UniProtKB/TrEMBL annotation, chain A:
A Pfam family per the record: BPD_transp_1
Keywords: Cell membrane, Membrane, Transmembrane, Transmembrane helix, Transport
Cellular component annotations (GO), alphabetically ordered: plasma membrane
Ranges where the ABC transmembrane type-1 domain occurs: 65-246
Family matches, as Gene3D superfamilies: MetI-like
GO biological process, alphabetically ordered: transmembrane transport
Main location: membrane
Bilayer topology annotation: Multi-pass membrane protein
InterPro entries registered for this protein in UniProt: MetI-like, MetI-like_sf
Protein name per UniProt: ABC transporter permease
Locations listed in the record: Cell membrane
From TrEMBL, chain B:
PROSITE patterns associated with the record: ABC_TRANSPORTER_1, ABC_TRANSPORTER_2
SUPFAM superfamilies the record matches: P-loop containing nucleoside triphosphate hydrolases (SSF52540)
Gene Ontology terms, MF aspect: ATP binding; ATP hydrolysis activity
Disordered: annotated span: 251-297
Stretches with biased composition (Polar residues): 273-297
Family that this chain belongs to: Belongs to the ABC transporter superfamily.
Name recorded for this polypeptide: ABC transporter ATP-binding protein
């Protein structure tokens, strides 16, 4: 009884969430069919669909997506792992904190895109540069949130660790990391979103190569708006899926917390 | 092993810096605790009773004078000295079982032995069936049971308890006091319990250390020569309690030093009002066993 109530609640939620996208699609289709907008600027849904089909079957759309996802995941993993390590160092070492944190806080104010010229000079225009850029995008939110979480570990629990004669390693793995986990998860979640945005940015700005960003550039250059639209829609869908996956993982890792809803 | 579990506090003073001034939390305090003894420390807020406990446990070492356990000076925390705080201080991301196991994290037992000890300890505090529960799923009393289990699981020589039942409701508190007394009698662990609840101090302690505030000093040590387990309604217990209350009264009524302005006003809350009511209460109920008679100062 309760289960069916919950699931009908869920269906309602999904239905409400889908309302606006469907309305937009209808509006899009209606305006391009009625000739309200120039199809060269906004292609008909059907065109987009056919282009997607063509890219999928004749060209290597899955491969392009694979390239983008690979860069995204590689950069994200690299950036967040380094971010957690770096923030742990800053939060737990007074010397490192005093030496590095002010500089980091200054550097993080620089727009990510401003790093692109430097990265391209240091790392070239290939995969390496793109992954570094994506890693940087993930690194910053992970560092900020992890640092915050580590700084807010309750002194009460640290004292319990003292009373139980925890070693420094135990203090980090048994108290600091788990206690900061909600903040770390927030940082990693943001890092995942930023790194996906940065993946496209990297593909867009760091020369043309395989990837969804390259697909969009190709579409623009050939004035193939349908192709551009296919790229944009894929970016949105992948971003949405990544976000949902991150939320699921976060819920699982933080299942010990008092449920707030 | 238990014969060496002897806690010796001699001539200990502790000062804190508060707003640029010096505050004497403890002033030349001396106290010996015998192996297997249950000592309770009672006093008004600011009498340094928690400070004394933290010094004994080794969580605070900035004192003058000597704190010794089993013949060695206490220079920091040790697995031979367990501690239970007022708040359960469980790790919210660990289940009850794993929280209790934290007490064995650095103990020299095999994995199987640890599991066994944890299970036994959980049974001892009556939490069987809740091993896999997370702290937020527990009531206050259950969480504190887990806290006590964590303090006891390593079988320390001495267990320090810092107002362990202070945040619990009266019924839960009475139950846990009884259970703590049983555990103490069974396990023969020396216990030092700090409380502001006179009934609790008298009910549990072999000796009741009465402290007076500003500066924190031991005013008197009242022996409670009654066998455990005790009847809360016993007339002897009631008269000892009244005696302790009288001493506490005299400590708060005396001329206070000027530093009192910095302290919260609650210190002045007179225990007298509750006393006169509580003093008669147990006797006016001849039958039945009222487990609830708390006289907090």
């Amino acid at each position: 009884m309760a289960a069916s109530y919950v699931s009908s609640e869920r269906v309602l939620k999904i239905r409400r969430g889908l309302t606006l996208p469907i309305l937009l699609l209808i509006l899009w289709e209606g305006s391009s069919r009625s000739g309200l907008v120039d199809p060269r600027f906004l292609p008909a849904l059907e065109d987009v669909f056919l282009t997607a089909k063509r890219e999928l079957i004749d060209n290597n759309l899955i491969g392009e997506l694979g390239f983008s996802l690979f860069r995204n995941i590689a950069g994200f993993l690299l950036g967040s792992a380094l971010g957690v390590l770096f923030a742990t160092l800053l939060a737990l070492s007074r010397v490192a904190d005093a030496l590095i944190t002010p500089t980091f806080n200054g550097l993080k104010q620089i727009s990510l895109l401003a790093w692109i010229p430097l990265i391209s000079i240091w790392f070239g225009f290939g995969e390496q540069a793109k992954i570094v850029f994506v890693a940087l995008a993930a690194f910053i939110p992970v560092v900020l949130n992890t640092y915050e979480g580590m700084r807010n570990v309750p002194a009460d629990l640290i004292e319990v660790g003292d009373a139980l004669r925890f070693t420094p390693t135990q203090r980090i793995t048994r108290i600091f990391l788990p206690s900061a986990l909600p903040s770390i998860a927030t940082g990693v979640h943001l890092g995942l979103i930023y790194s996906w945005l940065a993946t496209v940015g990297a593909e867009y700005f760091l020369a043309v190569g395989p990837g969804i960003g390259g697909l969009i550039i190709a579409g623009r250059e050939r004035f193939d708006m349908a192709l551009v639209m296919v790229g944009v829609i894929i970016l949105g869908i992948v971003g949405f899926i990544l976000n949902r996956l991150a939320a699921k993982v976060e819920n699982y890792l933080l299942r010990w917390r008092v449920s707030t809803h | 092993m238990t014969s060496t579990a002897h806690l010796k506090i001699s001539n200990v003073s502790r000062q804190f810096r508060v707003n640029g001034g010096e505050l004497t939390a403890l002033d030349r305090v001396s106290l010996d605790v015998k192996a297997g003894e249950f000592v309770t420390i009672v006093g008004a807020s600011g009498c340094g009773k928690s400070t004394l406990l933290r010094l004994g446990a080794g969580l605070d070492t900035g004192h003058d004078g000597l704190v010794e356990h089993a013949g060695k000076p206490v220079t920091g925390p040790s697995l031979d000295r367990g501690i239970v705080f007022q708040e359960p201080r469980l790790f919210p991301w660990l289940t009850v079982e794993r929280n209790v196991a934290l007490g064995l994290e650095n103990a020299a037992f095999s994995k199987a032995e640890k599991q066994d000890l944890v299970a036994k300890q959980i049974a001892l505090v009556g939490l069987t069936g809740f091993e896999k529960a997370y702290p937020h799923q527990l009531s206050g009393g259950m969480a504190q049971r887990a806290g006590i289990a964590r303090g006891l699981v390593n079988r320390p020589d001495v267990l320090f308890l810092d107002e362990p039942f202070g945040a619990l409701d009266a019924i839960t508190k009475a139950h846990l006091q009884g259970e703590l007394q049983d555990i103490w009698a069974r396990e023969q662990i020396t216990m030092v319990l700090v409380t502001h609840d006179v009934d609790e101090a008298v009910y549990l302690g072999d000796r009741v250390v009465v402290m007076s505030p500003r500066p924190g000093r031991i005013r008197e040590i009242v022996p409670v020569d009654l066998p455990h387990p005790r009847e809360r309604t016993s007339a002897q217990l009631a008269s000892i309690r009244n005696h302790v209350l009288d001493i506490l009264n005299s400590t708060t009524r005396n001329g206070e030093p000027k530093t009192i302005a910095k302290q919260p006003a609650q210190v002045k809350r007179p225990p007298i009002k509750t006393t006169s009511a509580a003093r008669n209460a147990p006797r006016s109920q001849p039958s039945g066993r009222p487990i609830l008679s708390t006289t907090e100062i």
